């Protein structure tokens, strides 16, 4: 921008040095540093509990299956229904955040999550467990997109925003590790219900701090106020539920994909998806997923690459846990210890990432993370029968956390910075939809591959999943390399300020 000043309304202007300063200082929304710390604790905690209840539940499944007499054909549903419901409702809740503000949707989402997490701990049979897990999923569907909306709208582009987003992404592996740890402790030392009770206690603290410290962002928008796209909601939710249901259930149905209801639900899901595309493009007044958001340079390629890479991460987490427990015969507590590098590495990467995102081009960081995604699954695909932990498992864990942390941080900053303030809820729902749907979609395909190769034994069938994930990681990195160019995440004007500047210049030219 040289030495020119940028006007920001009557009587005010931003010089380059002022823009840099604004990108580093505490936002005006926070009255004190303690309020900002409380806000950050709430947002980081929301990511923590979402991952806690996702990862630890897989470790609980054997104990739950025995205690609640879950039939083999239904064992996958208590785990998958949570991600399925969360992914299906992210877009509608993102719109609610744009309509009513991120604060109210975030706090209600945490409260809902707390209630159903507590009730889940008292499940008496597997049907109650499945219903409770499904209702649990509505909580993250509400607070994850609204959380990113709050982060993206309160913090200006610059080093401070980069650092907070880095910490936010780091708490995914931290929550993942905590879930595995407390699940192992609950199964081996107490009872499985305490996994949910401990999580509920953490949730209660986060909910109270959120209520007290998150600034209200409800604005009077008048005639331009966001409206719910009901037709879009009524097509995208059943589309995602039916497609993911078919992919998840297809490998466990009586006759696999030859079972009549599997191809029927799969086809119906794509018909609803086609209806959603039609509604969004030609019917909806305010679409849940506006087509013009993909006009941002590189956005289409970024969405495709993220869908594949998050899917790779989901396959890695699920099958690495099972490989370590069932093939390498590590107990729950030893398995949680082996996942420690994901926790520690996430925190280290967050600290470093927050300091260098404004110094290195995003494209370089994305290529680094893409390489890490490939190595994380490749190391498990070639792992020998009696592996050395430090030669295979440790570097795989480090690469997995590096891949997802760097990708999550760089792309979150890019997407939220590329959106108007009024569309931060949409940005949050898009980011998390790619995460949850990528995990659900590719886990369904990997599960099908593992089931079809079950006659080779657990070790070889799990390796099929890792080879599949490696291929997806290579494809995702190729799309990133050829289709996505992201510069340094340095201090800059917001999109709203840029548009206001363009309108002001246009007015001046018209007057002259």
From TrEMBL:
Membrane topology, as annotated: Multi-pass membrane protein
KW Iron (keyword) present: no
GO molecular function, one term: transmembrane transporter activity
Transmembrane segments: 33-54, 74-93, 100-119, 125-151, 163-185, 191-214, 230-248, 260-280, 301-324, 336-357, 364-383, 389-414, 426-445, 465-484
InterPro entries hit by this protein: MFS, MFS_dom, MFS_trans_sf
Presence of keyword Membrane: yes
Gene Ontology CC terms: membrane
Keywords: Membrane, Transmembrane, Transmembrane helix
Annotated ranges, domain Major facilitator superfamily (MFS) profile: 31-488
Localization: Membrane
Top-level taxon of origin: Eukaryota
Primary location recorded for the protein, binned into one broad class: membrane
PANTHER family, per the entry: MAJOR FACILITATOR SUPERFAMILY (MFS) PROFILE DOMAIN-CONTAINING PROTEIN, MAJOR FACILITATOR SUPERFAMILY MULTIDRUG TRANSPORTER MFSC
Protein name (record): MFS general substrate transporter
Gene source species: Melanomma pulvis-pyrius CBS 109.77
């Amino acid at each position: 921008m040289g030495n020119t000043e940028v006007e920001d309304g009557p009587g005010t202007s931003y010089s380059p040095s002022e823009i840099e300063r604004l990108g580093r200082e505490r936002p005006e929304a926070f009255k004190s540093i303690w309020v900002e710390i409380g806000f950050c604790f709430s947002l980081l905690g929301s990511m923590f509990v979402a991952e806690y209840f996702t990862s630890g539940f897989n470790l609980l499944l054997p104990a739950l299956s025995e205690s609640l007499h879950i039939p083999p054909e239904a064992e996958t549903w208590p785990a998958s229904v949570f991600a399925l419901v969360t992914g299906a409702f992210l877009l509608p809740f993102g719109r609610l955040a744009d309509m009513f503000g991120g604060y109210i949707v975030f706090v209600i989402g945490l409260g809902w999550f707390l209630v159903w997490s507590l009730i889940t701990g008292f499940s008496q049979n597997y049907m109650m467990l499945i219903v409770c897990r499904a209702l649990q999923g509505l909580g993250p569907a509400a607070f994850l997109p609204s959380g990113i909306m709050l982060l993206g709208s309160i913090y200006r582009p610059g080093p401070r925003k980069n650092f907070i987003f880095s910490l936010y992404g780091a708490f995914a592996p931290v929550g993942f590790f905590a879930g595995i740890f407390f699940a192992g402790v609950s199964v081996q030392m107490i009872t499985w219900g305490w996994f949910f009770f401990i999580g509920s206690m953490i949730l209660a603290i986060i909910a109270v701090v959120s209520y007290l410290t998150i600034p209200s962002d409800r604005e009077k928008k008048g005639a331009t106020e966001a409206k719910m796209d009901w037709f879009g909601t009524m097509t995208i939710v059943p589309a995602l539920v039916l497609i993911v249901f078919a992919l998840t259930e297809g490998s466990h149905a009586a006759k696999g994909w030859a079972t009549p209801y599997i191809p029927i639900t799969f086809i119906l899901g794509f018909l609803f998806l086609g209806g959603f595309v039609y509604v969004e493009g030609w019917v909806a007044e305010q679409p849940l997923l506006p087509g013009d958001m993909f006009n941002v340079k590189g956005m289409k390629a970024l969405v495709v690459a993220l869908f594949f890479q998050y899917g790779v991460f989901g396959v890695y987490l699920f099958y690495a846990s099972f490989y370590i427990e069932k093939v390498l015969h590590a107990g729950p507590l030893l398995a949680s210890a082996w996942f420690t590098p994901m926790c520690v590495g996430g925190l280290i990467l967050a600290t470093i990432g927050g300091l260098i995102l404004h110094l290195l081009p995003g494209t370089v960081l994305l290529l680094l993370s893409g390489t890490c995604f490939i190595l994380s699954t490749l190391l498990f695909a070639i792992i020998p029968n009696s592996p050395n932990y430090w030669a295979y498992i440790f570097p795989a864990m480090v690469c997995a956390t590096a891949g997802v942390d760097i990708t999550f941080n760089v792309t979150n900053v890019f997407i939220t910075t590329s959106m108007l303030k009024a569309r931060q809820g949409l940005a949050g729902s898009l980011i998390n939809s790619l995460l949850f749907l990528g995990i659900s979609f590719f886990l369904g395909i990997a599960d099908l591959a593992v089931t079809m190769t079950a006659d080779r034994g657990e070790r070889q069938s799990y390796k099929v999943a890792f080879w599949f994930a490696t291929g997806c990681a290579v494809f995702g990195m190729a799309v990133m390399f050829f289709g996505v160019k992201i510069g340094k995440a340095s201090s800059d004007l917001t999109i709203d300020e840029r548009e206001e500047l363009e309108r002001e210049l246009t007015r001046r030219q018209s007057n002259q």
